[in-house]
Design goal:
This protein has about 350 residues and is of the alpha/beta class. It has a domain of about 160 residues: FAD/NAD(P)-binding domain, CATH 3.50.50.60. Helices cover about 30% and strands about 30% of the residues. The strands form 5 sheets. Strands 7-6-15-16-17-14-18 form a 7-stranded mixed sheet. α2 packs parallel to α10. The longest helix is centred in the last third of the chain and has 16 residues. The radius of gyration is 21 Å and the shape is globular. It binds flavin-adenine dinucleotide. Flavin-adenine dinucleotide binds next to α2, α5, β14, β18 and α10. The site of flavin-adenine dinucleotide (FAD) has 39 residues, from α2, α5, β14, β18 and α10.
């Protein structure tokens, strides 16, 4: 792929974005609004990253982000203008967390939003006007005469680009920089890599409702950190009910190599222990997130290396949530424009 737009107009930059999660898509849209020429590279088949839904019988289950907040009014405006109002809405559920002594307390009152009819409806809408190259895993980047050339794992080449934005989780970003001989950038990510924790996610289907007080709950449990009635989200028209279970970071770390069927059994046992539900699910689906959430409290917002023309954005740089991914991308685009 070649792109010579920059030689005609120096104000219009050719920018590569690695990753099409919320951070990558937000950065791409905001940069295109400044008339830059943006190409997004995504290693997976679809966009969305950890805003992920898995196909299950009768529909889909959200295996990654469960809901998101809109505390920053700029995020609402961005979503409304670039994704539209139809693909997301409030999840009108009851939510509770469990104290160590076992009693349950409702979450603080706050509107919790979800994609409709699935989480990935949002990323699909955001990606609709963006040049996203799917199933392209960027392996190396090399600079020649102030221009960047990217190479994927199938040895295909892309470029030239004036600047590159990397929105992969820090371990994958560090691999990319290490492969490219950018050791100063790679070592800047060491602390962030160790702060990212894995998470086992399991979706289970019950023919009849298992019965639980809350649609979303954070139990005090050594195995499970989150249990949700996915079918209670708006726009899901499931027969029976799909529930999504997330394991704690510690349990997921200890069981990162445990066979999937054993993980499902252990998480189901914990689900029964927490909810008292004796029903057997008739279907299960599991997913292992190697890089799920950051437990760091150090959030610089974004990273920008002007001498190299390389920026980093992602949730792990700004609060570790969907909204943080947008905030980080927005902060990076502002920094790059100064
Ligand atoms: C189990 C789980 C539960 C969560 N629950 C919540 C929640 O309830 N609320 C909330 O707000 N947040 C939640 N989150 C966090 C939320 O999902 C993330 O904060 C957000 O989706 C991160 O977006 P991002 O764009 O920064 O990164 P990602 O979504 O990870 O996007 C990075 C993208 O880069 C791609 N990529 C990586 N390397 C390469 C490469 N070399 N070449 C090309 N592409 C590459 C990846 O495939 C991915 O698509 C949860 C996450 C998980 C895993």
């Amino acid at each position: 792929m070649t792109n010579h737009q920059n030689s005609q107009c120096p104000d219009i930059r050719r920018i590569a974005v690695v990753g099409s999660g919320v951070a990558g898509l937000s950065a791409a849209i905001l940069l295109e609004q400044q008339n830059h020429s943006v190409t997004v590279f995504e290693k997976s088949r679809g966009s969305g990253g950890r805003l992920a839904s898995k196909r299950v019988a009768g529909g889909s289950a959200d295996m990654g982000a469960q809901y998101f907040t809109i505390r920053n009014p700029e995020f609402r405006t961005f979503l409304e203008q670039n994704a539209g109002n139809d693909c997301f809405g409030p999840w009108q559920g009851c939510f509770g967390f469990q104290h160590p002594d076992g009693h349950w307390q409702a979450f603080p009152v706050e509107t919790r939003y979800v994609g409709i009819p699935r989480m990935t409806a949002i990323s699909r809408a955001l990606a609709s006007d963006i040049d996203v190259r799917a199933e392209v895993r960027i392996d190396t980047m090399a600079r020649k005469d102030n221009e960047w050339y990217l190479t994927d794992t199938s040895s295909r080449h892309y470029g030239p680009f004036d600047q590159v934005i990397v929105t992969a989780p820090p371990a994958q970003a560090r691999d990319l920089f290490t492969n490219s001989g950018l050791m100063n950038l790679a070592s800047a990510l060491d602390g962030s890599v160790s702060a990212i924790q894995p998470c086992w996610a399991v979706a289970v289907h019950f023919e009849s409702a298992p019965g639980a007080e809350f649609e979303g709950m954070r139990p005090h449990n050594s195995v499970l950190s989150w249990i949700a009635n996915n079918s209670s989200k708006p726009g899901r028209e499931d027969h029976g009910q799909w529930w999504v279970l997330h394991a704690t970071s510690q349990w997921s770390t200890e069981h990162v190599e445990t066979p999937m069927d054993q993980v499902v059994d252990a998480m189901l046992d914990a689900f029964r222990e927490v909810t008292g539900c004796a029903a057997m699910p008739d279907e299960t689906v599991a997913h292992r997130w190697l890089y799920a959430r950051s437990d760091s409290n150090d959030y610089p917002g974004c990273l920008w290396f002007p001498a190299e023309g390389i920026g980093l954005a992602g949730d792990w740089l700004s609060g570790g949530r969907v909204e943080g991914a947008f905030d980080s991308a927005s902060a990076l685009v502002t920094t790059m424009s100064q």
